[in-house]
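Minutes, project huddle
Topic: does the predicted pose make sense with zinc ion bound?
PN asked that the exact inputs be recorded in the minutes so nobody has to dig through chat later. Recorded below.
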Amino acid sequence: MRRAPVFIGDAGPKGKGVFAAAPMRRSTRVASFRGRPRWIWEIPEAIWPYTVQVDYDRYVIPRKGGVVWFFNHSCEPNCVISGDGIKTERNVERGEELTFDYSTDVDWPGFAMKCSCGSRSCRGVVRAYRFLPPELKLRYGNRVAPFILKEYPQKQGAARSGPAAPAGRRAAPRSP
Ligand SMILES: [Zn+2]
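Predicted holo structure (tokens), as shared on screen:
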């Protein structure tokens, strides 16, 4: 991947954040989540806010001080999850802070983060994907973490002709 033109800067009350160093077109990949997944209980709790969930109880620890480490949440983000990374969802101007919706990458039911994104549609508290309002799930569609896609087959677009999941019970999500 060509290095996206981003820099880490002061994001006010949120601390540090990731900003566009140059104008970027829609669908520019700006961050990658690649890394060795670890079990949540292997990770010190102080690091949890910086981790990226990649499966049930499995998380990647981003490089400390790197782009993913400082990528902030917004309830009205200009970036979305795309596979194992983040891409811009619209054209972005130089100097804009890049954000994505943490609820599209976390499905641990105990997750609750007070939000200070300041957007008009701020949800106040950011929680797991499963608690997102249905209209937001529809809007994000498949632009969520791959493990979430697997667990919640998306229903937007053409109606499926068969059942969304194979007959029988799907694995129940683990509780903390
Ligand atoms: Zn918010």
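Observations noted during the meeting:
- The helical segments are 67-70, 134-140, 146-151.
- Residues 6-151 form a domain with the Beta-clip-like fold (CATH 2.170.270.10).
No decisions taken; revisit at the next huddle.
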